[in-house]
Amino acid sequence: MQKRLVLDQEEIEIILRRFCYQLIENHDDFHNSVLLGLQPRGPIFLDKIVAKLEEISGIRVPSGYLDATFHRDDFRRRDLPLKANETKIDFLIEGKKVILVDDVLYKGRSVRAAMDAMIAFGRPQKVELMVLVDRKLTRDYPIMPDYFGLRVNTLESQYVMVEWQDKGFEKDAIWLTEKVND
């Protein structure tokens, strides 16, 4: 399998810092803002953002993990049922500014499902989307990120692979690879 490095650990660190400063500019003291990491791959990225925000600003922003499995439009169309992940939100989002956090924006289906799922926790004042990688040529829904680290032009035959040290990889890295046909 051929793969091409698109972001290395140093570049990811720069993007994380930039995201934090953008959030600080756009959300004042975070008194009315929350961050939600989209399961299954957004929570690692979310935890890094929350820790970096606290390091830079001294503020611990309320955050949680959101699973949208049962809100997906393909939930009943698969041969095997999808396995749900943990939703971990111990606050209401009624009237809050919600920043949805995920690693890769692909077709927009997960984000659409997440917006449906988060309504169970209240009606947000505003919703923003933060992603490390925006696969801009593959969208099925008109969803665009408010914050993105890198935009890549990808083919349907390609896959964006995100590796985190927290998941046992040597370094944080993002690769562009060819999808493996089963």
UniProtKB/TrEMBL annotation:
It comes from the Bacteria. GO terms for molecular function: uracil phosphoribosyltransferase activity. Residues 7-158 form the Phosphoribosyltransferase domain. Keywords: Glycosyltransferase, Transferase. Its EC number is 2.4.2.9. Coiled coil: none annotated. Pfam families: Pribosyltran. This is Bifunctional pyr operon transcriptional regulator/uracil phosphoribosyltransferase PyrR. The lineage of its organism: Bacteria, Pseudomonadati, Bacteroidota, Cytophagia, Cytophagales.
